[in-house]
Amino acid sequence: MISASPSALLSPSAHVPGFVESNGLLVYFASDGTTVPVQIVPGLRAELRTGRVFYYALGGNRYGLSPGAPAGEFKPNVTMQQANGSSAQTGGVVLVGAVTSKLIANELATLTLPLDRWIVALPVDIRSEPNTSQVGVTFDGFGLHGWSDTPRVAIHFTGSLPVANVIPSNGGFHVLVEELGVTAWQVIDPVRLSLSASEFDPAHLMNELLIYGSGKPSVHTNVFVNGRVAVGQKMLTASDEVSVSLVVNGSRADFPPNKVLTVGDVPVFVASF
């Protein structure tokens, strides 16, 4: 059971919150009457089970998944800031690393300008968040506040959630526990250490993504993993807010909404393992 449109619509009447089938499609009805159609992901099917919508691999998918293999979940409780500054309840898809990696590769293949060749799957696994608990995706210039005020995408949530690798070409990850305001912790790709400290490297823009947060991390000392890990590898658990910026030693790079990986207009989060 899959939906045809990712756009959030307004229903004229309120409903009991939950997923329902409507005209052969799956939609989520929020308590305020907002309806969020379940997003189609090519090569996957969506099924309603025990009040949640899960994705499973179809035969012939291009992700290397066996038919019927679990591939992710649709979460209706996601709002995303739009290019005009408004916010829309788009929902979010949480996809396993094999699917996310392929979608990232497909997106990068369409980008021809060297300094455009980066894209971000949101690195927070939101599957354990209740559908009634809002997850917000926003864009601003307050990343790394107090250092350089860097453009960022920020994921806002309640409780503590896993933070996972989203860089396919990584050389591992370094979790640095700093306790310095917006960067109480940060994660860098060790490939970054071999690049210029003052300029973006067009061939390694994905490696220059910085993931960081102001909430309490699950690790209390620095963690160093110096070998490539899969997309979806859990790096730590964090609370409150997780941000991503493209930054090199104070350099600024705009972070518009189109730099977030989406399926349709629905943002992609990576499932952790």
Structure description:
By secondary structure, this protein is mainly beta. The chain has one domain (9-270). 5% of the residues lie in helices and 41% in strands. The chain has one helix spanning 97-109, and strands at 9-10, 18-22, 25-29, 34-37, 44-49, 52-57, 70-75, 78-81, 87-89, 92-95, 135-143, 150-164, 173-180, 183-188, 209-213, 223-225, 234-246, 262-263, 266-270. A 9-stranded mixed beta sheet has the order 9-8-11-12-17-15-14-13-16, with no helix packed on it. The chain has a 6-stranded mixed beta sheet with strand order 5-6-7-10-19-18. A 4-stranded antiparallel beta sheet has the order 1-4-3-2, with no helix packed on it. The chain is globular.
Shape summary: globular
SSE pattern = EEEEEEEEEEHEEEEEEEEE
Which percent range fits the helix content? Answer: under 10%
First-to-last CA distance: 26 Å
Count of individual helical segments: 1
Number of domains: 1
The whole-number mean of residue pLDDT values reads 91
Biggest sheet: strands, sense, closure? 9 strands, mixed
Task: Bin the strand percentage.
Answer: 35-45%
Spatial ordering of strands, largest sheet = 9-8-11-12-17-15-14-13-16
Radius of gyration, CA atoms, in whole angstroms:
18 Å
Low-confidence parts: 1-13
Quaternary class: single chain
Q: Can you count the beta strands? A: 19
Structural class: mainly beta
